[in-house]
Amino acid sequence: MSVLTKSEVLDILRHKTGRDMPENVVQQKADTVMRIQELKVEMNAVILGHNYMKPGLFYTVPDFRGDSLDLCRKAAQTDKDYIVFCGVRFMAETAKLLNPDKTVLLPAEKAGCSLAEGITAADVRELRRQFPGVPVVTYVNTYADVKAESDICCTSGNAVAVVESLNSDTVIFLPDEYLAGNVAKETSRHIIFPKKSGRPISPDTNLDYFMIGWDARCEVHEQFIVADIENIRQQFPDTLVLAHPECSPDVVAAADFSGSTNQLIKAVADSDAPHYLLLTECAMGDNIAAEYPEKDMLRLCSVRCPHMNEITLEETLLALENKQYVIDVPVDIAERARRAVNRMIAIG
Question: Which among 43, 81, 42, 87 has a CA at the least distance from the CA of 64?
Answer without folding.
Answer: 87
